[in-house]
Amino acid sequence: MEILKSGKEKRMPLQVWMVLGAILATLILLRLMLPKLVFMPMSSLVRTPAAVGLSYEDVTLKTSDNIHLHGWYVPAANARGALLFFHGNAGNISHRLDSIKIFHDLGLSVFIVSYRGYGQSKGSPSIRGTGRDALAAWQWLTEVKNTPAGEVIVFGRSLGGAVAVELARSVTPGGLILESTFSSLAEMAPFIIPTPVARLVTWDAWNSARTAEGITVPTLCIHSPVDEVVPYRQGRRLYDAIAGEKAFVDIDGGHNDGFMRSYDIYIAALDDFLAKYPG
Hints:
Strand order of the largest sheet: 2-3-6-4-7-8-9-10
Mean pLDDT: 87
CATH topology: Rossmann fold
Oligomer: single chain
CATH class: Alpha Beta
Low-confidence stretches: none
Helix content: 40-55%
CATH architecture: 3-Layer(aba) Sandwich
Largest sheet: 8 strands, mixed
Order of helices and strands: HEEEEEHEHEHEHHHEHEHH
Shape: globular
Structural class: alpha/beta
Strand content: 15-25%
Number of helices: 10
């Protein structure tokens, strides 16, 4: 019996190492696949702002790691400020014309950029890359267009909200609008992989709720209780974490059409916020 026991003791470490190796390999594979799981870019532009009657400027800018991005600057006459627009996951800037027109009609000049790998922007999407893209867009708007930081409203929808929150760590806009935004990528990941694994794979990237604890700029959060993509509870958790002056508005409808289905409520909330900020 002692001999058998000794033999088992010799085999167990190898089995354990094999299991640990398989787990590690799986985590590495999932980490490498993360951009494919997170981002859904489209390269073709389906329309331009001209399709909704807006004049615009085609913009090409370069990030700190030398990636060329494409965007549109849509000026408003006698603008009350400028909106830096970070779009959601799928598509590109050409799928956001309804929102561009809404903000333009509210008196804002709008600057929207396709993340790297989206639309006509070069490179491949990555979480770290979107941070560089956001900062490059901010610098273009504030340094090339000479828009005072206090007159810029940063807007992010869904995934774009996470990008906006990350940007707010290093810049101080006049206000921040977060629409249908998740509290953290790890909390969204259970839709794809289990939560404990998700935290290891994401390395806690885009933990917007934690980052929001240091955000003191005025913030408007908008979310639908029946959002089928980003759970409403995550939007509330993000709102609760924000340190500064803030407001929360409920809209009706799904993740992608809520702002249009709740048009009157939505516009009133935006107009009320913009009456106070920027400036």
